[in-house]
Amino acid sequence: MWNRSGCNIRKDKLLTGKQLAELNISILPRIGEKRAKLFYKLGINNLFDLLYYIPRRYEDRRVRVTLDHVQNGELVTVFGRIVNIEEVKLRRNLTLLRAVISGNFGICNALWFNQPFLKRTLRKGLPIAITGKVERNLYGYEISVLDYETGDLKKPVHVGRIVPVYGTTEELSQRMLRRIIYQTVVNYAGKVKDVLPPDMIKKLNLMPISQALTQIHFPSDMKSLASARERLVYEELFLFETGLSRIQQHIRKDGVARLPKTSLPDDFLALLPFPLTEAQHQVIAEVKSDISSSKRMYRLMQGDVGCGKTVVALYALLYAVAAGYQGVLMAPTEVLAEQHFLGISRLVSQLGVKVDLLTGSMGKKEREQSLEMLKTGATDLMIGTHALLEEEVSFWNLGLVVIDEQHRFGVKQRDLLLLKAAAPDVLIMTATPIPRSLTLTVYGDLDLSIINELPPGRKKVKTYYLPSTEKGRVYRFARKELEAGRQVYVVCPLIEESDHLDVEAAVARYHELCQEFPDFQVALIHGKLKIEEKDRVMDAFRRGEINLLVATSVIEVGIDVPNASLIVIEGVERFGLAQLHQLRGRVGRGTQESYCVLIGSPRTEEARERIKILVKYHDGFHVAEKDLVLRGPGELLGMKQHGCSDFRIVNIFKDIQYLLKTKQIVKNYYNQNQDLNQDLWDEIYFRFPKLVLGLKI
Ligand code: ADP
Ligand code: MG
């Protein structure tokens, strides 16, 4: 049989999701060009989209046998015949259609407001089911009709059953959408191929796919709906996990036991001016054992801002270097990479380790030289930004990849770096505590290290909010701190996406503050400065020669000056929570009382909520938890680029128990089927293109 799109569908052949997606919705009856566009707006382009367009919610519109015991205002559905119908003009712009309906349930008045055209279809004697709010009054029962269906109700769509309610736009009515999905389910659900392995279906006693797709839209009862959802959740997770485990396998394969030949890592610890915290010791032990074992390290290190992750990472890097390998540290911003570079160079220069820096803004010659040294092995430790990911960057013998502040990178970028060597060990650092369900989905079976204590003597940063109009008060407070010999950051608002405007705003604020504090040294730092210039400013600030530093958010991560006691953040509504928490982490690094003042004029509820959270909570764990609620997991982890955002049915928070079970199943399935069949892989690729992008099997 040929259909309108020219695709050949054989009657008996079952279709995979990918094949369904090749059938445009315009092949369906009732969908012309104009209506098709309305569907596209909802993200529904093809039959796959339509069948997997999961209802937002359901309404129980099953027919009641009696109206006894109903409450006023309750939503009820009754079935009967129209025994009388009349139109009443209530006011000039308000007409009422009132029908008397009688059935087994008894008798009631049905009311339609302002739909005079219904007169033509609703005639005396017609069987009808109505659903609406019931009211009992002097005249008996009255129902204001929300939806109705005429006919004998053998195959009800809108009323007389549990009814799906879909997300839709004003132009495309719920009734039309529901009707079209109904027809599609009737015609196509039975043609969908089951992608789950038969033994999985059997073992978990799952509904067949055709039934699940029918029941998810038009459930016969709540129990079948639950089974249908379960079945679809398993399907999605199975495909996702199978894809993920392929990637994992790829990443994890061929670990190398790297054993240090010198005492370099311990010499480094001996140089530190402070003893490690217990938590740092613990994580160092974990990392050491990973790197020296033949199992490949694939570890996430979590710990709040300022807990000392860098020291641990550096230890790991030196451990790999001592074993005769190169290490690389990738940071999310240039400033942070530079900061790491300077700090690390200072620490290890006396140990004879060759450290280098690679960022996007380096000159051509400098860059070529860096690349050459990296390739020949002259460089031991490379530090950089995502400039490291470019194809021409190649290592002589890369043994360890450390990625800082993971949430700023797309997962794809991370994986790219891993391809620069046969099987480097991997350590990811993040200040964002990631819920277990998320790590399991995003990273598979990544090992987890947690630094759960701050170095001794750190104090909570007292956090306040002031509206923009009260800047005078802030300046008076800043003066007090400056006069006490402390240092102050003023962070200028982020302006849209434009660096250029950010700089302008910072320059203006800088001039203003120079006038306000003529008796102190005020300086300016922003992203557009040359690295030497930034370096000079930061060094002077570190030495205390600069008292007040005006900055764009370039100081967000990593900068470390213990004498700074106040950070003023302007335009607070423009920053995300994680960012604000990072910024706040710039102070409270010494032993004195420290403050964070948030200034702004938040207009949205969400912006106000963010401020409240920061004022109330001080540890990153709480802040991130709240952030997760406010923004959802996608943005938190840069998961927009990751396959997780392609889930249609699964909710990774709620469906954690399914996830764990699927993981187990996929593991077993994998052992038995080392080669995935092409159909399955195609389907994985089709459903989760971002997950498996670029991976060859
Ligand atoms: P983060 O975890 O945010 O990356 P850093 O590694 O930048 O934290 O450390 C923050 C500051 O704490 C740095 O100045 C670092 O030298 C210092 N630090 C790290 N570990 C300790 C420790 N055990 N005792 C005291 N200070 C420490
Ligand atoms: Mg850090």
Account of the protein in words:
It is a single chain. With 697 residues, this protein is α/β, with parallel strands linked by helices. It has 4 domains: 62-160, Beta Barrel (OB fold (Dihydrolipoamide Acetyltransferase, E2P)); 195-246 and 660-695, no CATH class; 264-451, P-loop containing nucleotide triphosphate hydrolases (Rossmann fold), CATH 3.40.50; 462-617, P-loop containing nucleotide triphosphate hydrolases (Rossmann fold). It is 39% helix and 19% strand. It is built from 24 helices and 20 strands. Strands 10-11-9-12-13-8-14 form a 7-stranded parallel β-sheet, with helices on both faces. Helix 6 packs across helix 7 and helix 7 crosses helix 22. It is globular. The chain starts with 16 loop residues before the first helix and ends in a 5-residue tail after the last helix. The relative contact order is 0.09. The model is unreliable at 1-8 (pLDDT under 50). The structure holds adenosine-5'-diphosphate (ADP) and magnesium ion (MG). Residues 309-310, 558 line the site of magnesium ion.
